[in-house]
Amino acid sequence: MNTETRRGYWCECWTQELPEQGRPALRASFDAYSAPQADRWVAVALRTISPALDPAASDEAWVWLYQGRIETRQALLRGQPCEVSVTHGSTTITWTIRPVAFLPLAHRQGTELPACVDDFKPHKTVSSLS
User: Fold this and answer.
1) At what angle do helices 55-63 and 35-49 cross, to 10 degrees?
2) Which H or E run contains 11?
3) Cys-Cys crosslink for 102: which of 6, 37, 61, 130, Cβ 3.0 to 4.6 Å?
């Protein structure tokens, strides 16, 4: 088992309906091992969705891509967390990036799992269309 921690960045994408109705919803997460990899994750997402965004949100996205991305990368390299947001209609989409230390996990190969794993039964979802 590797016992060393590895420095990196934990990235998440959240959405929230405005004006702050309900809790934010986690849409995606990503573990990056360098600042360029972390900001690239956000950049790829923004480039991918920008054609579907309303004009104001698309402008917000491209401003970050052309100007804010450099500031984000510099902040990440200084060990500071970052956030990028665009608002499309009544929805705010926010990407967060924060420096982390990834902890090593034990290998499961050759290890007997506890007996309780056989007791796990996935929950069945109940359809409201019945």
Assistant:
1) 160
2) strand 6-17
3) 6
